[in-house]
Design a protein that fits this description.
The complex is a heterodimer of chains A (about 250) and B (about 100). Chain A has a single domain, classed as Ferritin, CATH 1.20.1260. Helices cover about 65% and strands about 0% of the residues of chain A. Chain A has helices at about 1-25, 35-60, 70-75, 85, 95-115, 120-150, 150-165, 175-185, 190-210, 230-240, 240-245. In chain A, helix 1 crosses helix 8. Chain A starts with a helix and ends in a 6-residue tail after the last helix. Chain B has about 100 residues and is α+β, with helices and mostly antiparallel strands. Chain B has a domain at about 1-60: Phenylacetic acid degradation B (Ubiquitin-like (UB roll)). Chain B has helices at about 30-45, 70, and strands spanning about 10-15, 20-30, 50-55. In chain B, a hairpin with a 7-residue loop joins strand 1 (about 10-15) and strand 2. Classes of the chains: A mainly alpha (about 250), B alpha+beta (about 100).
Chain lengths: ~250, ~100
């Protein structure tokens, strides 16, 4: 029972990285300019690397012959447990940066706590991820500031990106049955305790970017239970195409 | 893709602590922070360095190729400028 819960916990971490990595990879060759194209691709690859670590661990918990690839390419939409913020479309560059900024700030705090996990594997992956995430956060937060405090047009686009994605941010801090169980076992992170710090980081950056923090926005969630927005299905059909069309194909 | 609005920056990488910075190439960026980040993305992802300098290309003062003759007049007739009369000890490293 406990192993099943740990599997679910690790799976969400893997799914978040996988889906976000896939989203970011959609910028490849479409970046606003060459250097940023490379930056987004590099961050995407970091996410895939992280996804691989988590999904391999999840697969080992599942036992039998399950592999990380099975988890990535042979599950349906409803079986994915990523936060719905990760699957939101790239939109314009400001949308991508807002999504990244919210998630980087969250994962920076999350991994710092997860590094203290009594589960050695999770602690090790978290420690490796902290360095990456620190850089990712620096990249995305600077863009939020640059665009927010830029021209009238960039300010407006950045504000609207922040406003549009805000509704998905509460889900990051929801504690479900799995989270609570993992917390009791000193394996998982208490997301409620990092919420205040996240708020503070977001406020600081938004203030420097001359952007307004959204208020009175209806929050939505469900990703952890497999209830996703319509965007995830399209993303998966693209990402899983090869395995679906040619099951177990090998190079 | 358009780079029309972004200035270029020259990137210098220090391969290891204490070594001289070497010119690595250039990047496009709108500000210092972005220049450093882009330089990191392009030139140091495989642990090529320990430190990066970026400087706006337009801030670099270059000699003019037309002045080459007067600037870099071959010193063939000034043998005394070359330290060829010294013997280098085999123990001296890094020369």
């Amino acid at each position: 029972m406990s192993k099943e819960l740990l599997f679910k916990y690790v799976l969400t971490l893997g799914d978040d990285a996988l889906i976000l990595g896939q989203r970011l990879s959609q910028w490849v060759y479409k970046g606003p300019f060459l250097e940023e194209d490379i930056a987004l691709s590099n961050i995407s690859l970091d996410m895939f690397g992280r996804a691989n670590l988590f999904l391999e661990y999840a697969a080992s918990l599942k036992g039998s012959t399950t592999t990380a690839d099975d988890l990535a390419f042979k599950r349906n939409e409803r079986e994915f447990s990523n936060h719905i913020l990760c699957e939101q479309p790239n939109g314009n560059f400001a949308n991508t940066m807002a999504r990244q900024f919210f998630l980087d700030a969250f994962y920076k705090l999350f991994f710092e706590k997860l590094a203290e996990s009594e589960d050695e594997q999770l602690s090790a992956i978290a420690q490796k991820s902290i360095k990456e995430t620190t850089y990712h956060f620096r990249h995305s937060s600077k863009w939020v500031i640059r665009l927010g405090d830029g021209t009238a047009e960039s300010h407006e686009k950045m504000q609207s990106a922040i406003d549009n994605l805000w509704m998905f941010t509460d889900e990051l801090f929801e504690m479900n049955e799995v989270d609570n169980n993992m917390l009791t076992q000193k394996i998982g992170v208490d997301c409620l305790t990092i919420k205040a710090k996240w708020d503070q980081i977001i406020d600081e950056v938004l203030s420097e970017a001359t952007l307004k923090r959204p208020e009175n926005i209806h929050m939505t969630s469900g990703g952890r239970e497999g209830i996703h927005t319509e965007h995830l299905g399209h993303l998966l059909s693209d990402m899983q195409y090869l395995q679906r069309a040619y099951p177990d194909a090998e190079w | 893709m358009s780079n029309n609005n972004l200035p270029t920056w020259e990137v210098f990488i220090q391969p290891k602590t204490g070594a001289s910075f070497e010119h690595a190439g250039n990047v496009h960026a709108s500000d210092k922070e972005m220049a450093l980040q882009n330089a990191r993305e392009l030139y140091t992802r495989r642990q090529e360095g320990t430190c990066i300098w970026v400087v706006k290309t337009e801030d670099i003062v270059s000699s003019n190729p037309e002045d080459q003759q007067s600037f870099f007049d071959p010193a063939d007739d000034k043998l005394y400028r070359y330290p060829t009369f010294f013997k280098v000890s085999k123990k001296a490293k890094g020369l």
